[in-house]
Amino acid sequence: MFEWILSALIIIGAFFTLVGSIGLYKLPDFFMRLHGPTKATTLGVGALLIASALYFSFKTDDISLHEILITVFLFITAPVSAHLMAKAAIHIKLKQVKRTQNEIK
Amino acid sequence: MLETALFIGFAMVSIAIFLSFLRLIKGPDVPDRILALDTLYINSIALLVLLGLYFQSALYFEAALLIAVMGFVGTIGLSKYLLRGDIME
Amino acid sequence: MKTLFNKILPHPVLTLVLWGVWLLLNNTIGAGHIVLGLILAIFIPWLTSGFWPEKIRIQSPFTLLKFLGVVLWDILVANMSVAKLILSPNKNLKPGFFYIDLDIQTPLGISLLANTISLTPGTVSCDLTEDRKQLLVHALHIEDIPATIKEIKERYEAPLKKVFTAC
Asked: pLDDT class for B1, splitting at 50, 70, 90?
């Protein structure tokens, strides 16, 4: 039972990490590409880290919680770096896809 | 059971790293490359966590934490450089 | 009494966070680390209080907890919907920019709102105007802009405004 939960968490985490990178690769312009990594990867890595915390807590006698630290760190920093990258892209006037509504010139 | 899941996870994360790498080469602009680097950092954290589970060692955690911190600082530094043409003033 | 408390603990929230992070980093709850962490958690805010001119006051902790729950749930839902959008053909996506008029004034509230927007359904905060009145947001797929703005304001901005009001 425990192994099933762990395996499910690992597959879910790896899947979302993969989806983030697929988005990075196939979406047509920079601002749309920004969405893939900032969202999918936070949950992907989050699920993997929860799996790791569960595994080390149950395999050894001690409770292992320091994985939470990386999760929290990523949840705080991912939006900040996305914001700064978007700001930089607007600053150097990166082209947007034609169908963008309210295009920024 | 767990081992099979870990191998599938390794395969998926490796493909993710490969796709980010392709975007890093392709560009076409500087922000795209910064974003690809940022994604590579996060993907490598995922790979390190999986390795830690596979080898049953907590040592990989420290490396993952360091990559998380350094990756964030690197991304911020590069974006600031684009914004101002200068990192510190 | 109140002033003495403020002098020893200039930022109680920061102290608690530092203590928690120290214990998590060392991954123990041994007595030695609890004491050492407490000493560091009291000493560091006191030493760096010059860098933190703004005092953080949390008005209603219950609203904050409820808000955290809502945001975590929305992150889960957002990931599903964004994954679906990415994997489906990208020709049908309608990306767009829009401005949100801000009601919150405190810098901490604004930054938390921007972070929340970036983490939840298909939206990334891109820029804040110089006068801190408007937030530029990019959406991956948007059909009804006013409805989205209304939802963000009701769901995220209202509780944040209630928790972090200027004091």
From this structure: confident
Parallel/antiparallel/unpaired status of strands C134-139 and C123-128: antiparallel
pLDDT tens profile A59-100: 777 777 788 888 888 888 888 888 888 888 888 877 777 777
Q: Is residue B42 part of a domain?
A: yes
- Residue C56 in any domain: the answer is no
- Nearest Cα of chain C lies from the Cα of A4 at a distance, in angstroms, of 20
Q: Are residues C121 and C93 in the same domain?
A: yes
Flag if B75 and A64 touch (Cβ within 8 Å): no
Predicted local distance difference test score (pLDDT) of residue B18: 92
Shortest CA gap B88–chain A (Å): 15
Domain boundary pick from C12, C28, C51? C51
Please report the ipTM that was assigned to this predicted complex: 0.85
Q: Is A82 on the interface with C (CB under 8 A)?
A: yes
Closest by Cα among B1, B5, B17, B80 to B50: B5
Residues C39 and C110 in one domain: no
The residue ranges of chain C whose pLDDT is under 50 are 167
- Which residues in chain C have their CB less than 8 angstroms from residue A66's CB? 24-27
Shortest alpha-carbon distance between residue C36 and chain A (Å): 18
Q: Would you say residue A17 has pLDDT above 70?
A: yes
Alpha helix locations (H) across C10-106? 12-26, 31-47, 61-87
User: Considering its fold, how many domains does chain C have in total?
Assistant: 2
- State the residue range of the domain holding C33: 2-51
Angstrom distance (rounded) from CA C59 to CA C143 = 36
Contact A102 C25 (CB under 8 A): no
Residue A99 at interface with chain C, using a CB cutoff of 8 Å: yes
